[in-house]
Amino acid sequence: MLFVGDDWAEDHHDVEVQDEQGRAVKRARLPEGAAGVARFHEVVASFLPEDAEPVEVLVCIETDRGPWVRALVAAGYQVFGVNPRQAARHREVMGNSGAKSDKADAHALADMVRTRRHQLRQIAADSDEAEAVKVVARAHQTMIWERTRHMLRLRSALRDYFPAALAAYQPLGLTSTAALALLAKAATPRAAARLTVTQITTALKGYRDKSAKAAAIQAELRAEHLAQSDLVASAYAATVAATVAVLQTLNTQIATLEGQVEAHFGRHPDAEILLSQPGIGAILGARVLAEFGDAKDRYASAKARKNYAGTSPITRQSGKSKTVHARFIHNDRLIDALHMQASAAILHDPAVRAYYDQLKARDVSHNAALRQVGNRLVGILHGCLRTHTRYDQATAWPHRQNDLAA
Fold first, then answer.
1. What is the pTM of this model?
2. Could you report the per-residue pLDDT of 209-237, keeping only the tens digit for each?
3. Smallest Cα–Cα separation from 181: which of 189, 169, 193?
4. For the Transposase IS110-like N-terminal domain, which residue ranges apply (predicted)?
5. 269-284: per-residue pLDDT in tens?
6. pLDDT > 90 fraction of the chain, expressed in percent and rounded
């Protein structure tokens, strides 16, 4: 077998090929792109017997996506994508001098896959449909996170110079179309105080009881609040106008991407199974599919899927001390989606709610209970995907059916 460490950069890859004894038989710097992949195949082939299969080549790289990785997987190599933190810790085990270079990183990755491949997760090739869902679902979620960051910046600025706007627009939501339109029209306290009920009502298109809401907003904007000088307020207004423009653009693009997420997710063969799960809609279903992937046999068991999801607890034991903790190293996108699923499921599925209530009765905190609910739902999802069946409450929670009937 051959073991290859691939330290990638934007325009090149430093690779090292090791034999089974850990000897470096080849080091090379390859260009990014098709030419680099072709050269990679040539380097590997020069050290493989003629009757050897590509599966006898194990590649370790600090990423699990991109055209380069997909090309290696398509060629039949066993490719292991490792977290940079894992690679850094292995590098520390090999030597504590602190020295670092691209060649040394490639050497460490090759040694890592040679000695610890049983601890690494092999990259399994997802379908093109799942890859497409991942692209749009991650982009959609990233834009939502960006909108939240800009909203917090907007809130901070308004708090510093225009607290009346916070009081007036907070009920609408600072990222709502109406609040952004009113801030774009009048970004200073003086300008906002001159807004008429008609102007405010026009911005509240789509809201119920617009007249009462407009009157309340106008009253708040004209109420007495602490303020900055006009010069300072105008400077703040310039920054707020820029943030408002960014938020308006993000709102438009988030809505556009939401349609793309739903369209790509709807074309995936597992969409109906995911949508049948309690607490999951099209957007959450797309996120869960994107992060779990759809490669067959990627998860050997429900436990393996739970471990990857980060919902299963970990035990720390030393002597007579034994404690159970939540996993803090996990896929942030996936754990966020599963937390949202659990939060929705306890509201709409009686069996899930009964399990949550049982946990709360044991003085488990809300967040810890949601983690356990999410962990159970991941196991149920795994069973449904393995058997290609939709969620059925009686099958998923057979031990609770008598309680629910009562």
1. 0.82
2. 999 999 999 999 999 888 889 999 999 99
3. 169
4. 4-163
5. 999 999 999 999 999 9
6. 71
Q: Determine the topology of domain 2-123 in CATH.
A: Nucleotidyltransferase; domain 5 (3.30.420)
